[in-house]
Design brief:
alpha+beta, globular, 4-stranded antiparallel β-sheet
C-alpha cells in the first residue's frame, strides 16, 4: 500500500520529470492514426520528437509503468500508475507507444509465459522494438472463435502450422504474431494452443484488405507449413483457450477505455468550437449541435468516472472479469457518437476526401474507421450477451 504522502511526492517528481522530458510537439494531440508511434523493426518515426519521447519513456520504464523492472517496466504500484496517468493527461502528453504487445500479449505473458519467454519478449515490447499482431479470427471463426481450424501438427521440438487467419490488424507491418492454433481436432476449446512466431518465418504471407475508408489496416494471413519451435508455445499444449480469453479481457478493456475516453483526441467541445465558432457568451454558435455535444460530454465524463471506479475495484482485487465487455460495448458506442458529432460540426466540408485542406479526408476516413469499433475485439451483440449472462445473470442457453 502506498501512503498518500508518498503518492504526493511521486506526483511532484513525475510531473517535474514529464515537464522536463516530454518534447512540446508530443504535448499536442496526435492528428490521427498515422501520427501514432507503433514501434517495431520497420517503424519510421514521424519526427525526432516522437523518437525521443519513446526513448525517454522507455528508458524510465513508463511505456509499461506497472510491469516489473526486470522486464524493463516501471515497477510502479497501481496507485502510482494511476497518478502517472493523471499527470500525463493533465500535461496533455501523448502516448509514447501504442502496441498490441503492451495491451494484449504482455499481460498474457506476465501471467502465463515461462521465465525465458518473459525475458525474451517483454523488454522488446516495452522498448517498442518489436511490433505484434493478433492471429485469432479466421474466415469461419469470429464470434465463435473456438471453431478455429488453423492446424498445428505437433512434433518433438517444433510445430508445423497450416491455415488462414483474417482481419489481422497491421499483419503486413508487424514483426511477430501471437496466434491461436488447433492442436487437437477432437476437442473444441480444449484443443487450442497459443503460439508465438516471427512474421518473417518461411510460409507466412499477408494480403492487405482494402476498406471503405480507402485504407488497409488489416490483412488476410496465410500460414503454409510454418515451422514454429516448441519453445514458442505459451502455457500448456491444448491449454491456449484460457490464455486467449484472458488476453481478450485486456483487449476489450483497452479498446473500451481508450475509445470511450477519447484518449488520443482533443476534447469534442474544443473541436466543435473551432469548426462552428462561439457566440458572445462563449457557447457553441449552433444550438442543436451545442446540446448534442453537451449530452455527449456528460456521457463521456460519466464513462471516465466508471472507468476509474472499475480500475479502483480491480486494484482492490474486486474486479469482475466480464466488466471489460461492458466497457468495450459502451466505449465503442461513445467513440462512434464522437465521430458522428465531429462530422456534423464540420458540415459538408467533412466529406472532403482528398486535398491538403482536409489532410486527405482524415476526418471522413476516421469516421468510417470508427464504424468497426463495434466489431473489433468482439461484436457489440456478443458483448451484450456476456453482460446479460455474466453480470446481470439472466438465463441463457
Ligand atoms: C477494425 C477491426 C480490427 C480487427 N483486428 C483483428 C485482429 O487484429 N486480429 C484478429 O484475429 N481479428 C481481428 N478482427 C476481427 C474481429 O475480432 C471479428 O470481426 C469479430 O470477432 C467478429 O467476428 P466475425 O467478423 O467473424 O463476425 P461473426 O462472428 O460472423 O458475426 C456476424 C454478426 O453476427 C452477430 N453474432 C454472432 N454471434 C452472435 C451471438 N452469439 N449472439 C448475437 N449475435 C451474434 C455478430 O454480432 C455480428 O453482427 C478485427 C475486426 C475489426 C472490425
Amino acid at each position: 500500500m502506498t501512503h498518500s504522502s508518498d503518492l504526493d511526492g511521486f506526483r511532484r517528481d513525475a510531473r517535474a520529470w514529464l515537464e522536463a522530458n516530454c518534447p512540446p510537439e508530443m504535448r499536442q494531440p496526435a492528428s490521427g492514426e498515422a501520427d501514432t508511434c507503433w514501434g517495431g523493426r520497420r517503424f519510421v518515426f514521424r519526427s525526432a520528437a516522437q523518437r525521443l519521447w519513446l526513448e525517454r519513456m522507455a528508458g524510465r520504464g513508463w511505456t509499461v509503468p506497472t510491469w516489473p523492472t526486470a522486464y524493463r517496466g516501471g515497477g510502479l504500484g497501481k496507485a502510482e500508475a494511476a497518478v502517472l496517468r493523471e499527470e500525463l493527461r493533465t500535461l496533455g502528453c501523448r502516448s509514447p507507444l501504442d502496441s498490441f504487445g503492451i495491451w494484449m500479449l504482455g499481460p498474457a505473458l506476465l501471467k502465463y509465459g515461462s521465465q525465458e519467454q518473459k525475458l525474451e519478449h517483454l523488454p522488446r515490447i516495452a522498448r517498442g522494438e518489436i511490433r505484434w499482431c493478433q492471429g485469432y479470427s479466421e474466415p469461419n471463426a469470429g464470434s465463435d472463435l473456438a471453431s478455429l481450424a488453423t492446424r498445428a501438427e505437433v512434433h518433438a521440438d517444433h510445430f508445423i502450422v497450416n491455415g488462414q487467419k483474417i482481419w489481422t490488424s497491421y499483419g503486413d507491418e508487424a514483426d511477430w504474431i501471437f496466434c491461436l492454433v488447433r492442436t487437437d481436432t477432437a476437442r473444441k476449446h480444449a484443443g487450442i494452443s497459443f503460439l508465438l512466431f516471427d512474421m518473417t518465418t518461411p510460409g507466412v504471407t499477408t494480403r492487405p484488405i482494402l476498406l471503405i475508408s480507402g485504407k488497409s489496416p488489416f490483412c488476410e494471413t496465410f500460414l503454409d507449413n510454418v515451422r514454429v519451435p516448441r519453445r514458442n508455445l505459451v502455457g500448456e499444449l491444448n491449454g491456449g483457450w484460457t490464455i486467449a480469453k484472458y488476453l481478450l479481457t485486456h483487449e476489450r478493456a483497452t479498446i473500451g477505455g481508450d475509445m470511450g475516453s477519447g484518449a488520443a483526441a482533443a476534447p469534442l467541445g474544443e473541436l466543435a468550437a473551432r469548426a462552428v465558432g462561439c457566440d458572445a457568451q462563449g457557447r457553441l454558435q449552433e444550438p442543436v449541435l451545442r446540446s448534442r455535444v453537451a449530452r455527449f460530454e456528460i456521457d463521456e465524463t460519466a464513462f471516465a468516472a466508471w472507468l476509474e471506479r472499475t480500475r479502483d475495484r480491480a486494484r482492490q482485487g474486486e474486479g469482475h472479469p466480464a466488466v471489460s465487455s461492458a466497457l468495450k460495448f459502451y466505449g465503442a458506442e461513445l467513440n462512434k457518437r464522437r465521430f458522428e458529432l465531429m462530422m456534423a460540426a464540420h458540415g459538408a466540408e467533412s466529406l472532403e476526401w482528398q486535398g491538403a485542406r482536409s489532410d486527405d479526408g482524415a476526418l471522413a476516413r476516421s469516421w468510417l474507421r470508427s464504424k468497426g469499433n463495434s466489431i473489433e475485439g468482439g461484436t457489440s451483440e456478443v458483448m451484450l450477451n456476456v453482460v446479460a449472462k455474466r453480470i446481470l445473470e439472466l438465463p441463457g442457453d
